[in-house]
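Hi support team,

I'm opening this ticket because the web form for multi-chain structure prediction keeps timing out on my end. I have pasted the exact lines I submitted so you can reproduce it. The total is 630 residues across two entries, so I didn't expect it to be a heavy job. Is there a limit I'm missing, or should I split the entries? Thanks in advance, R.K.
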Amino acid sequence: MSAISGTQAELLVHDSVVEHRRGFRHRWYRTPSFVAGLTILGIVVLAALAAPLITQHGPNDQDLLHTLQGSSSSHWLGTDDLGRDVWSRLVYGARADLHIAFLAVVLPFIIGTLVGLLAGYYGGLTDTFASFFVNIVVAFPFYVLVIALVFALGSGSRNIYIAITIVGWVSYTRIIRGEVLVAKRKDYMLAAKSGGLSDFRILFRHLLPNVITQSVIYACSDIVLDILAIVTLGYLGLGVQPPTPDWGNMIASGQTYLTTHWQLATFPGIAVVFTALGLALLADGLADLLRPE
Amino acid sequence: MTREPLVRVRDLQVEFQLARGVVRAVDGVSFDVEPGEALGLVGESGSGKTVTLRALVGLLPRGAKLVGGTIEVDGVDVTAASDDTQRELRGTTVSMIFQEPMTALNPVMRVGDQIAEEPLVRLGMSRSAAKARALELMALVGIPDPKRRADAYPHELSGGLRQRIMIAIALSGDPKLVLCDEPTTALDVTIQDQILKLLRQLQRELDVSLVFVSHDLAVIAQTCRRLAVMYAGQVVETGPVAEVFREPRHPYTLGLLRAVPDFEIVRDKLASIPGAPPDLASPPPGCRFHPRCPFVQDDCIANAVPLIEVGDHRAARCLHHERVVEDVRREPVIAGG
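Hello R.K., no limit was hit. The queue was backed up. Here is the completed structure from your submission:
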């Protein structure tokens, strides 16, 4: 029997590590919150995509002879005050709301992450300048600023993206700036510099991959915020314009009949909660999965 | 023998601006490193050895400022060079090995990619050539089955393998000078020994120069031919390792050597150096070691002490170095020395 040398022993240890190695691909299905969130979101997204297939009526088909009906085999969730099918409107409303929410998260994500990265890395004037704008935006409550902006810009989905982008990027900037301030003191950053790499390469190859996880996780909860904002705007009559179905304007118009026909406002409300829950669970699961070891 | 030195540091001075005043962390340090030579920098924490090392790559820690002196690396004066010129030197002329292999490797990058980065970006190799070079380097630093390990992330490797990866990264740009900042301090003793042997072997085979910073005299003895002992921001003694160890000429060096535990002789005196290193915001007048020195005389306190030639290639910052030698002859520091 030959003695095992130090390096061989290390290799044995390493082999067992590799065997137990669980990358993202091998671990996601063991994270309950991730699976639950993915399932819920999957149901909502699938329903939105397959809207024409799973509805019997168009979302705007009025039937003034059958208004405010309870659920039946032809109208699963009944009809509203104009005789429109609530189920159809709910599913088509998911289309509009999810579409805007996902788009409205992309621009703030990119802009905010980039600004945070540069501000944190370079510090000094860049940081002062970026922080100045962040502080201006942060000084206003989220809804006040979004509503004011949409009011000024006019309603419609494009203006909702713009308003949410103007307000939303600051959260990403604050998160990423903080992460960068920690990460840039790490030895591997010094090591990258001692290799004579360019700032560009250090920023995007070494720093960004180490901090972007936080942005991704935040984006998931940010979508929830955006959906709520879109629904709120719809409720206030500033969002998606009727007759396009949207959960917000469904809740707003159903409110009048709350005492007699509770389902009109309640089902869109449940849809909002269900979707938000799915995204929140997904964010939680992602945070567990992506957390560096 | 008559080759131009690769590194020429002259009268280097680095200051930290702190709230309580200016701290001169490095004060008048000078040394040369010949091509292919290994120089050890020894000293306690705070003696300025790491700051000196960082000055060599032009990456001083935050708040530190180079206030005087020159550093020539491969004929280029780093202190006067532009940021771009300094960056050009890094990686391909000078590279660095860090103390903590866990934190000095990028946690989200495959180690193979980290080794291939210099060849790809700095040496202009193609992607496949850079990858081949990375595998070659991994084999060179003694990582078996490099192909498989190249795809690993740092956290999947043990401390020893990680340090080998760091060495491979440091060598990946074909540097002439590798700076080692206590590269084995964070490792187990057995792994430490393997890494030191590897470094010495690579240094000889590739003919690179090493500047090796450590507080551990045994580590310096294993890797370097020449050393400079630093105390309170100054070099207090330089010379060939074997000679300095056998016959130190500075009381601080003597104190360090007496503080090394030894299996072969049981020392009667518990040999720690009394006192603590001085506050560099207000260093003591005269010789900076005088408050802790057993040989102190009046003239030690009166004036600053220069480095005094004390033999072939040897110098010590001590006015009474003969008395140190007498003490050593009475009670040798190395068994059989």
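A quick check on our side: The two ends of chain A are 37 Å apart (CA to CA). Let us know if the file doesn't open in your viewer.
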